[in-house]
């Protein structure tokens, strides 16, 4: 069975979806905002997303674009907008299927099964991140570096996964505080300490980085290393 992320702000609809999907044997997580959905997709992963368009913080079509920037996980749109042009636009923007409300649980299950069959070759791809020799299993919360398991704390894992989901992108400290620590403000020292611990476990230093690069005055970037790992055989 699949791991399903339900993104729906209406508590009654969300409860009904959770009840049906759980009864069908699926593992279900649910959120009520686009921001929470993006966090779940980036940090935990899933097999399929059921995405409502009428979210309180961001239109679902914009959330779809942002999800597509993170992963190819199948997305089924749940919408009350029975407009052909809108549906075509959403499919072209990356949605895998759509359902017009109201719909039955059986209808949802049939659409989910079809989408998962079509994505069979890439099923589970949204649950892993690969950057160079780093392989991150978002669902199991496990990290391998060149095949060897790393022992990371919860915060170290969240920090590494957030950066690995955006390879080559400089992420500001303010964004890290908001998205990883989920705090609106804090000190740079908090982030620097965790980066130092993480670098040590990755076998690198700030002066000799491989994956984690500090961009002075801007933030942090995770890159694919270009040279051999220190201490490795030539």
From TrEMBL:
<dbReference type="InterPro" id="IPR039420">
    <property type="entry name" value="WalR-like"/>
</dbReference>
<dbReference type="InterPro" id="IPR011006">
    <property type="entry name" value="CheY-like_superfamily"/>
</dbReference>
<keyword id="KW-0597">Phosphoprotein</keyword>
<feature type="modified residue" description="4-aspartylphosphate">
    <location>
        <position position="52"/>
    </location>
</feature>
<dbReference type="Pfam" id="PF00072">
    <property type="entry name" value="Response_reg"/>
</dbReference>
<keyword id="KW-0804">Transcription</keyword>
<feature type="domain" description="OmpR/PhoB-type">
    <location>
        <begin position="126"/>
        <end position="224"/>
    </location>
</feature>
<keyword id="KW-0805">Transcription regulation</keyword>
<protein>
    <submittedName>
        <fullName>Response regulator transcription factor</fullName>
    </submittedName>
</protein>
<dbReference type="InterPro" id="IPR036388">
    <property type="entry name" value="WH-like_DNA-bd_sf"/>
</dbReference>
<keyword id="KW-0238">DNA-binding</keyword>
<dbReference type="InterPro" id="IPR001867">
    <property type="entry name" value="OmpR/PhoB-type_DNA-bd"/>
</dbReference>
<feature type="DNA-binding region" description="OmpR/PhoB-type">
    <location>
        <begin position="126"/>
        <end position="224"/>
    </location>
</feature>
<dbReference type="Pfam" id="PF00486">
    <property type="entry name" value="Trans_reg_C"/>
</dbReference>
<feature type="domain" description="Response regulatory">
    <location>
        <begin position="3"/>
        <end position="116"/>
    </location>
</feature>
<dbReference type="InterPro" id="IPR001789">
    <property type="entry name" value="Sig_transdc_resp-reg_receiver"/>
</dbReference>
